[in-house]
Amino acid sequence: MSGSDFKRQKIGVWGLxxxxxxxxHLIIRQMSEIFVKYxxxxxxxxAYVSGLKEDFSLNGNQLNYFxxxxxxxxxxxxxxxxxxxxxxxxxxxxxxxxxxxxxxxxFAQSRVTNVSQLYALRFLVGMFEAPVFAGTHFILGSWYSGxxxxxxxxxxxxxxxxxxxVSGYLQSAAYTNLSGVGGMPGWKWLFIIDGIFTIPxxxxxxxxxxxxxxxxxxxxxxxxxxTLAKDRARRANIRRPGRMTLxxxxxxxxxxxxWVFILCYACMIISSYPTSYMNLWLxxxxxxxxxxxxxxxxxxxINIVASWLxxxxxxxxxxxxxxxxxxxxxxxxxxxxxxxxxxxALKFVAWYLFGAAGCTSPILYSxxxxxxxxxxxxxxxxxxxx
Length: 386
Fold this sequence. Notes:
Layout: H1 3-55, H2 60-85, H3 88-108, H4 115-129, H5 132-143, H6 146-177, H7 186-208, H8 223-235, H9 246-254, H10 257-272, H11 278-284, H12 289-294, H13 297-314, H14 319-339, H15 344-353, H16 360-371, H17 376-383
Helix pairs in contact: 1-5, 1-6, 1-7, 2-4, 2-5, 2-17, 3-4, 3-7, 5-16, 5-17, 6-7, 6-13, 6-16, 9-17, 10-16, 13-14, 14-15, 14-16
Main location: membrane
InterPro entries: MFS, MFS_trans_sf
Pfam families: MFS_1
């Protein structure tokens, strides 16, 4: 082997190592962020059935109003948030900054004295969390394509369900061990614990989150590393971000992609929405507070398995086939919820089968990233309504 051949081989091995390093680093960072996002998003349901309802004399409608406040802000602020995420200079700093803000709001929920304050804080949490989910998919689609994108999206999405699971276990532990400590009920301690998780992840994000390949270079990556990332994106035909003009909006609205993907997303969300209310059913059935917080976590355990398995299979078989199978499981569960007068055992099966939806979101977003990879602006706009 000549000296030049050895050098090329060495560069190739080093390049492969750096690809793995960058990819692993990006996934771990975003897994941490989505974990605390869902921890802070779903904690209201756990708090509600762990004393919040009684302390503020609430009923089932108030839990729905909390969710309406959150999702109203979430939908409205996705548009500016994700458009900002597509700007290279801002992409690296936006998510950690928003994470700090919603972490502060999470802490503040432990000090509320009336339900109006809680409505306002849920709105703010939804506003600050708005670009995280679609924004991370946009980030992943800026670094990867094809089968590797499906697998990384599925691996990252696992922490969605994990955050929701941990919220249930934390609330159960807080209710059992912290009720009355410091003169506060256990449900307030849940918000404090969640805030303690959130703020450090945000601070670390300022140091290590790389943004997109065209963002300002983080300290741990060299110029050659960024060049390598841009070369990979170019080989995969992932176009670099351009200007966001009125023509981009017109072009996007004239193509079929945005309409089909929005329809798929809406159906996916509607079919799995009942999952959030399993704890209310358990409470009505007379289960204890720890059981009400723990039993729904089985759904999210299934969600984790479905996310990993579904995206793995989607890299081998047609992605639409895997998506359809998972959606059919959710359809069955939804029909059981509509009929309702069924055996209790079948209700548990229906609640838990909603976990099959774990693979639908990463498959759908990865499909968007793959099909529209040659137009970064259209890709960002398609993800906004989702």
